[in-house]
Amino acid sequence: MKKTIITGSEGTIGKSITPFLKSKGYEIIPLDIRATPSFNLLTDNLTPFLKGAKYFIHLAANPDPRIKEKDARKNFDMTQRIIEQLETPNSLELIINASSINVYDYLAIFDNGRKIDRKTSLSPNMKWGDGSYAKYKIESEKILSDYCKKKQISLINLRIGCVTPNEELPRNTEGKIDPVNFDIFLEHYDMREIAYQSLHKKGIHSYVCVSKKDGFIDKDILFH
Questions:
Q1: Which helix (H) or strand (E) holds 31?
Q2: What number of helices (H) and strands (E) belong to the chain?
Q3: Cα–Cα distance, 46 to 172 (Å, whole number)
Q4: pLDDT digits (tens, 9 = 90+) for 17-69
Q5: What is the overall mean pLDDT for the chain?
Q6: Whole-prediction pTM value?
Q7: Does residue 1 register a pLDDT over 70?
Q8: Least confident of 15-24, 172-181, 205-214
Q9: What is the pLDDT of residues 194-207, one digit of tens each?
Q10: Which of 156, 161, 112 is nearest to 13 (CA)?
Q11: Closest Cα to residue 83, out of 140, 163, 16?
Q12: How many Å is the Cα radius of gyration of the chain?
């Protein structure tokens, strides 16, 4: 049995990976406030869905990096509430967490002609809004890591780059390809493969997930 829970199954990434994983033989339990039936991670009971589940893919979040503190906090609260409900006996072996490349101040790094590597500290990207989105992504990674270490289960943090709903290359306000977002662009094909391959990994790891392999991100920290 490959019972797999996916939160945020109706989002851009969720809609892309759900049918793909089904085609690979995974039994998908989709949970989303926009699904039928609707499921709200902040209020509804997760426990009934956990029986027999081995994999948990957490995608649910407001994905806009410009959101303010209040909405960014809700993203963190969803992660925290998941952990609280996982404290009941469960069969999980692996959690895949959709983090973000915004956990790095990647625009400043790009502007200074440097690369993101294993020595690069986690520091919220301050270009978008007040940095709350990235701050709470960092906090979510931390609490999930603490939980998984305690329970001795695997955790894969995916620091996802720029994913567009229509799979077109990211463009600026002038309609030209944006050089920074092009370097961190993640195609749906690659996202599906990353999700699938992540289900076979063990241990606690964090990866940057982009399609372009020769940009300003060191290959050593890319998903492989």
A1: strand 27-31
A2: 7, 6
A3: 40
A4: 999 999 999 999 999 999 989 999 999 999 999 999 999 999 999 999 999 99
A5: 94
A6: 0.95
A7: no
A8: 172-181
A9: 999 999 999 999 99
A10: 161
A11: 140
A12: 17
3-class SS of residue 96: strand
Looking at the DSSP bridge assignments, the partners of residue 162 are 185
Q: How many residues in the chain?
A: 224
- Cα-based angle 43, 32, 189 (whole degrees, multiple of 5): 145
Cα separation, 80 vs 104, whole angstroms: 22
Which structural domains are found in the chain, ordered by start?
A: 3-221 (3.40.50.720)
**196, two tokens:** 């699938």
* Alpha-carbon distances of 213 from 32, 101, 105, 210, rounded to whole Å: 32, 15, 19, 7
Longest C-alpha distance within the chain, in Å? 53
CA neighbor of 120 nearest in space, from 138, 132, 104: 104
Distance from C-alpha of 29 to C-alpha of 18, rounded to nearest angstrom = 9
